[in-house]
Write a structure and sequence with these properties.
Elements (H helix, E strand, L loop, with lengths): L1 E7 L6 H10 L4 H5 L1 H4 L6 E9 L2 E9 L11 H10 L4 H22 L14 H16 L4 E4 L2 E5 L1 E4 L2 E4 L3 H6 L5 E7 L5 H9 L3 E2 L6 E9 L10 E9 L6 E12 L7 H10 L2 E10 L5 E10 L3 H11 L6 E8 L2 E9 L2 E10 L2 E7 L1 H11 L3 H18 L1
Parallel strand pairs: 1-4, 4-9, 5-8
Antiparallel strand pairs: 1-11, 2-3, 6-7, 10-11, 12-14, 12-15, 13-14, 16-17, 17-18
């Protein structure tokens, strides 16, 4: 059976909270304690404590170090070199690199630079590096292959960081929120950190209700901040998932309408706006309407909690006077992100898993297109090279 992890983000998600929850759920702490030496950070200390938060008995993880003894920021290449030099297990290294890649892409989008020009500040600090790699080590010790997460509770207000005083969610988090269900936490302060969200994105986490599983262990990890209204914890449920290919995902809604008077030039913008509003998938199908006019059947698959925003996008950016909604049950394969080498650079591929085993992959088109344009080669060549490299790596396992 496939080993799964469900994260119930009661108070939010941060790297230290996730570490603590995984240790409390049975993750091997010796893997965490060994990291400072393996990473060449010998002055770093790691403490795992027991405590309470909002009535919950929980674990806390504290990473101690002298900030003056370490760089104020690190670039993606420096972080990558640190990870590669640690000689981690293949799966641990792959996951850690995917997480920092998610961070780099978010920071690059925020600052309008390439990923190579990004400088990690808070997320390049020692504690963030330990949080990311430690999480990957603990997931490996628990044999977790598939991660699902609850909607994320978002706090409000401001936070002070290396770039000054920023509104919450901070820009890097806001950039990574596309396609992620959220809710109002009802508290002031940062509840979702860039490191915490990047871990979820890099692991290819699905978002939704707890999947069917035979629960083997439950762990609770607490953050450092306390709130008078709710526990600042994340709960980790570890267990066995059904062998069936693609257990159904509940709570999804299909929203559609038929348009016969929309300027065709506006259709791409409508589809883009639907995605921005939280749609998971969108498409348009040419149809003949009741008056024999050519038209478009536009459909958007949405989560239940983002349905209203998708409906509002239909009304704001199309000519429709009404939409139809249908509850749907989606069956999907688990997925994870991996990186492969091509003659033109690294590319991320999305790997589909059947009963925990790799089934096939698809290269990320936008990344392939960027490399193709830079090198002046057809994008199909980059895609073929990336997917071929994954197949060769898989055959060599």
């Amino acid at each position: 059976m496939t080993r799964g992890l469900y994260l119930d983000c009661v108070g939010g998600i941060a790297g230290d909270m996730l570490l603590a929850a995984l240790i409390d759920a049975g993750g091997d702490p010796s893997r965490l304690y060994a990291l400072p030496v393996r990473l060449g950070l010998k002055d770093v200390t790691i403490q795992v404590e027991r405590g309470r938060s909002g009535g919950f008995v929980a674990r806390r993880v504290r990473v101690g170090f002298d900030p003056a003894a370490h760089p104020h920021h690190r670039g993606p290449a420096e972080v990558r070199a640190l990870i590669v030099a640690a000689s981690l297990e293949e799966g641990v290294e792959r996951r850690a690199l995917a997480i920092f890649d998610a961070l780099a892409r978010a920071e690059a989008a925020v600052h309008g630079v390439t990923t190579d020009a990004v400088h990690f500040h808070e997320v390049g600090a020692v504690d963030a590096i330990v949080d990311v790699i430690g999480t990957c080590e603990l997931l490996a010790s628990l044999d977790v292959e598939q991660v699902t997460c609850s909607p994320l509770p978002m706090g409000h207000g401001f936070v002070d960081c290396a770039h000054g005083r920023l509104p919450l969610p901070v820009p890097a988090v806001a950039t990574m929120l596309a396609g992620v269900p959220v809710r109002d936490a009802g508290v002031e302060g940062e509840t979702v950190t860039p490191t915490g969200l990047a871990v979820l994105k890099g692991l290819g986490a699905e978002f939704g209700p707890m999947p069917p599983m035979l629960v083997a262990a439950v762990g609770t990890g607490a953050g450092t901040r306390e709130s008078p209204t709710q526990a600042n914890v994340v709960r980790a449920f570890v267990g066995e998932l059904p062998e069936a290919a693609g257990a159904p995902t509940e709570g999804q809604v299909l929203v559609e309408c038929t348009l016969d008077d929309l300027d065709p030039r506006l259709l791409p913008e409508l589809l883009d706006r639907l995605m921005q509003a939280g749609a998971l998938e969108v498409h348009a199908v040419p149809v003949l309407t009741k008056k024999g006019r050519p038209g478009q059947l536009v459909r958007a698959l949405s989560r239940g909690e983002t349905r209203k925003g998708v409906i509002a996008a239909f009304f704001a950016h199309s000519t429709t006077l009404g939409v139809r909604t249908y509850p749907v049950e989606k069956h999907g394969l688990a997925r994870r992100a991996e990186r492969v080498h091509t003659p033109w650079g690294e590319v991320e591929v999305k790997v589909a898993l059947l009963a925990g085993r790799p089934l096939r992959c698809r290269a990320e088109y936008d990344a392939c297109l960027a490399l193709a344009r830079e090198a002046g080669v057809p994008v199909r060549d980059v895609i073929a090279a990336a997917e071929g490299a994954w197949e060769r790596d898989r055959s060599g396992d």
